[in-house]
Amino acid sequence: MAPPGNLETVFAAGMAGLGPFGPSPLLAVGVSGGPHSLALAILASGWALARGGRVLALVADHGLRAESTTEAAGVAARLGSLGIPAAVLTLGLAPGPGLHERARAARLSALAKAAEAAGAPWLLLGQHLADQAETLAFRALRGSGPVGLAGMAAARPAGAVMILRPLLDATPAAIETFLSERGLVPVRDPSNDDPRFARARLRRALGDPGGTGPGVAALAEAARAFGERRDRLRAAVAARLAGCTTFRTEGWAVLDAAALGRDAVAEAALSALLRALGGGAHPPARAAVAAMLARGGGSLGGALWRGRFIGREPARCAAAVPAEAGVVWDGRWRVCSVPDGGWIGAAGPGFAGIGLAGFARGGLPGFVAAGLPVLRDASGRVMAGPGPGPGWRVEFRPESGPIA
């Protein structure tokens, strides 16, 4: 670990562990204007410029307060004055229950999509050592298992981009010092100290705003140990899946149950398959996965396992939506190209239209075919699919990320 007081060293070490990046890297950076993201944008800009690359700052406007639009524009203008180009993303969230969690999910989704659209394969976020400690404590209070207790990963996929967190070893105190030395005053979000929110109460209970105390250090170290355990499990899962599963690019799999086994690695491997093929935002409950593994089949998490096949459960497929380039249907399929006026939806039971005959000749079971996407016109007539057709192409790209 880099010396906690030297933010530049911590950042450089963090980036070194996340590469390689190649020449002239383009980095997207999520910036709220707060101390951590502001420092991250400055550090990332200098790092990229030194390598012939550049950064694009992405500022999310949640639209939850009357002044949020003006604040977001102010953050973008300030970044511009520092030589960092910025774009504002308008989210338009509605007030209501679970606001913090919904805002976090919406912000992350918008940032990832904007980074992809800009051609930036990496999206940097400013979480730090105290954030990691809070995450572990928060998840422990919610009863998370070992994977959840691993906290935030330094790198993880989000659609077509990789989320990177190079400041996970940095203390808030080091970040504040970095900005103070440069005469920069960050934006302070009052909700971070609002006791109505669970994380704010937890932060107050930890009582270590600078993140330099033994409690934060111990929690962060525990998250690191759980993270190493998670990485070992992922490697074992990848190896197990490679030996027992034939994955089809159409979004289904052939599974050798005997080769899968029935141990903890088998449970994790089956969970990963179910999440990707079922389009779930979260993995199914561990007990439910174990029960399915013991049965050797069934329905769980929007996926159906019958005999040697696992695919999307047709009855759980999302409703048809207007097909536009970039649209993700059913949490699994991204539209790449499409004729005007089309709708993407499930083929449905008994469908014997365009493209299905070839799948059927290959032994594809009916329930798998029924969950594949087709393109329809406004009247419901099938125009293309499930396979590619003229001007029509979709990719199986589950929002949960790659399997394993």
TrEMBL record:
Record field: catalytic activity: cytidine(34) in tRNA(Ile2) + L-lysine + ATP = lysidine(34) in tRNA(Ile2) + AMP + diphosphate + H(+)
SUPFAM superfamilies: Adenine nucleotide alpha hydrolases-like
Cited Pfam families: ATP_bind_3 (PF01171)
Subcellular location: Cytoplasm
UniProt keyword list: ATP-binding, Cytoplasm, Ligase, Nucleotide-binding, tRNA processing
Assigned EC number: 6.3.4.19
GO MF term list: tRNA(Ile)-lysidine synthase activity
Domain tRNA(Ile)-lysidine/2-thiocytidine synthase N-terminal per the UniProt entry, residue ranges: 28-204
Family: Belongs to the tRNA(Ile)-lysidine synthase family.
HAMAP family named among the record's database cross-references: tRNA_Ile_lys_synt (MF_01161)
Function: Ligates lysine onto the cytidine present at position 34 of the AUA codon-specific tRNA(Ile) that contains the anticodon CAU, in an ATP-dependent manner. Cytidine is converted to lysidine, thus changing the amino acid specificity of the tRNA from methionine to isoleucine.
Protein name in UniProt: tRNA(Ile)-lysidine synthase
Source species: Roseomonas populi
